[in-house]
Amino acid sequence: MCHVIVTCRSMLWTLLSIVVAFAELVAFMSPEWLLRAPLPENGVTQTKVSDRESLGLYSRCYRIKGEISCGIYARAFGEVASKFWQAAMLFLAAGMLVLGCVACISVFTLCFQSIKKKSIFNICGLLQAIGGLLLIVGLMLYPTGWGSEKVASFCGVEASPFRPAGCSLGWAFYTAIGGTLGTFLCSVLSAQAEIATSSDKVQEEIEEGKSLICLLKQDSKSPTSSGSE
């Protein structure tokens, strides 16, 4: 019988797992990893981030007749700016794949908390830690590719590994870092979600024959729960 179990900690873990997976996907697809220093146009320097040219892992935004146009510069994997960026994309994609799978599985933990007596929360927490490590490797490889010809032509000839010269880091890079940190937080929260869904109060509700168990507010004396036969 499927028991739908909802607790604060399990719900928080599920929502955060989905958010970090989505954040990493958005960052990966965005062209705003590197922003070129604004150039004067008609005597006016553009200060808005949305008006600045940018370079992503496989796409870029550039100015044409005063308008910003974005598109893919690498039509094939081999056309990516550098070997380091290619490796970074592989690690980031692998990490996102793991996080995406965990995000999907996290929804089903409302009904299924274990498989063959193995806690799904613990398994997902381990996978999230592995995914976080893959993302860290990808993010560390990314700045080593700043010495490529593509980056040098975009940011200036002074560009070198870990030194973007005339460019600055865009929101996509920081979003990827935030998502990575959130991934490790999810890994820690998974253990708390496991504890919450296997508590004595939950077991009591199951023994009473309830199929819906909701423990969203709980104090030391009187847990609040709701259930349906």
UniProtKB/TrEMBL annotation:
Record-linked Gene3D superfamilies: 1.20.140.150
Protein origin, superkingdom: Eukaryota
Cellular component, GO annotation: membrane
Keywords per UniProt: Membrane, Transmembrane, Transmembrane helix
UniProt membrane topology term: Multi-pass membrane protein
Ranges in coiled-coil conformation: none
Residues passing through the membrane, by range: 12-30, 84-108, 120-142, 171-191
Record carries keyword Membrane: yes
Subcellular compartments: Membrane
Cross-referenced InterPro entries: LHFPL (IPR019372)
Name of this protein: LHFPL tetraspan subfamily member 2b
